[in-house]
Amino acid sequence: MKNEDVQRLVERISMQYFKRPFLHQARFNHRLRTTGGRYLLRSHDIELNYRQYEYYGEEELIRVIKHELCHYHLHLEGRGYMHKDAEFKALLKDVGGSRYCRATDVPDFKHLYICLSCAKQFKRRRRVNTAKYVCGFCKGNLRYSP
To answer: 3-95: which CATH number, 3.30.2010.10, 3.40.50.720, 3.40.50.300, 3.40.640.10?
Structure first.
């Protein structure tokens, strides 16, 4: 799916579910990792996470688009567009958008440490100085397990 396709999809969803046109730009942002999409307050553009489409397909992407369009339309109307606002929550529920996006970039652990006393395992992304840190449960010494 290209940015032109996304633009047309967002315009179609806006008219179908919100009965209002989407007059700005919608595009994929390949650098997004922890969010499904974002609405830019200053330019009123919408950026979407390509991984949502890649991993879960068009159906999940449509739910993310509905979420971002709720921000878009409420902000342009001067109404409560933030996640905490009741108007946002009500509109999101009405159109069937997703409140949270599904995880796409969950990094695996690289380092495993085992407590020598209680055998508790600790999975970490970064190395830990075993001379400085001990087990948080029993205060036993840790051993690196490659």
So the answer is: 3.30.2010.10
